[in-house]
């Protein structure tokens, strides 16, 4: 994982967390922005592979294997939680964007760490009597912002992936 990917993911996730804290949902504009950034970045990566490495097939193989699988694993991993009412649709789409940009190597850790941190946040919310359904904007919303758990998952997932890369170089 390179520093540009980590910076782009951090920006997208922080914007999504801010929107979730402000409006109790993650806007589709933020998801579209994340997808647009990911597609542009992956297009430049593919172009870099063609021009510099002269390896179109290798670049396409890495792109499909890593990014598309990351998108699918991230989206459908969170979709299972959405079916049971544990997360919102914006959280599902955000995890898809994280998988598209970060790849399968990152999104599997983000899913795991966000589940753990979401469980901890849920327990803390119940202890503090903050986990409750409230009426907001004409709909029932859960007061726990799962985007916070996703942000923790992204941070821990990036640390885990970077640590694995450092250890594998030794």
Quick tags:
170 residues, mainly alpha, 2 strands, 79% helix, single chain, two-stranded antiparallel ribbon
Order of helices and strands, N to C?
HHHHHEEH
- Which strands sit side by side, in order, in the main sheet? 1-2
Continuous helix count: 6
Shape by Cα distribution: globular
State the end-to-end CA separation: 17 Å
Mind telling me the C-alpha Rg? 17 Å
Sum this structure up briefly.
Helices cover 79% and strands 5% of the residues. It has helices at residues 3-23, 28-51, 56-83, 89-102, 104-127, 146-169, and strands at 133-136, 139-142. Helix 1 packs antiparallel against helix 6 and helix 3 packs parallel to helix 5.
Q: What does this entry look like structurally?
A:
This protein has 170 residues and is mainly alpha-helical. Helices cover 79% and strands 5% of the residues. The protein has a two-stranded antiparallel sheet with strand order 1-2. The protein is globular, with a radius of gyration of 17 Å.
